[in-house]
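Tutorial handout. Part one gives the primary structure; part two gives the three-dimensional structure as tokens.
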Amino acid sequence: PPPPPPPAQHSPPPPAQHSSQQDGSVGSLSSPSSASCEPVRQKQGDKPRMTIIVPFRDGCSASDQGGGREANLEELTKELSAHLDKHGVDYRFMVVEQVKRGAFNKGFLFNTGYLLARDQTDYLSLHDVDQVPLSPRNAYAMPGRLPVHACVANSRTNFKPAYDTMVGGVLNMRNEQFERVGGFSTAYWSWGQEDDDMYVRIFKVYGGVDHLSPQVGRYRALHHKRVKGLDLTQGFLNQRTQLVHLQRLEPGKPFDDYVAQNGFQSVKYKIVSATCTDRISRYVVDIVNPTFFSPAKGGIYHRPAEEVMVQC
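Part two.
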């Protein structure tokens, strides 16, 4: 008799995907956008839920080092997923992509990602798109009393530890820690300083951060087009006054009032498009209320989006 036919080969089903489009509504802390596609995440026993928030834009402006980021994102999600699966972390990626108009605003994207994820997560990994962990001992665990700076030494600096107040690259925070410091400033535009501002916020509330050891907090910096000298531009130097102002604020009411005007509580956003799969949510968002800082104008002020959010 002829041999039996081989068993049928079945391709795995594609991941569940849900999409939505901009409905014209403005999202904020008090009124989340109805265009969100964020799924409900049930807690698995006592295991905390982590959301990896990745601020993103690709190929828009040299001032935000935006070239080659799509390839970075693909590599990050693949490698970090494998890393976290080995540690049994309950995780989800939240990619928050700024539309291609206006200068890049990383703080706005982190804050918007938090507003979209806050009801479905217990802690955050605030993660640059071009940093991949190398040490198997880096478990991305939920922080304790202090936020945890994870990206302590990366390949671009030959794994030499960064300065003590550095919290950029990868910063892990509980929800309540992020809220207590007011989230990120949204008044830094283009490249840099929002991370230094975040350190000052954390220091004023918690007295400092925990840093992973250089052996555990080792990261590989992914390749992309880089622009040198951005910290020497006039725009960068002008924004330094905001950091100095924050450093001089007294803890308590002066600090709390300031971060309420310039942080996650004051963000207004529009969702242009949203796609949610089993592990990744990707939102393209627009800034509704561009935020700026000027001592001459009394501190924080806003400008109409149509005046400053120019197509790039």
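Part three, for discussion. The CA atoms of residues 197 and 243 lie 6 Å apart. The mean pLDDT is 88.
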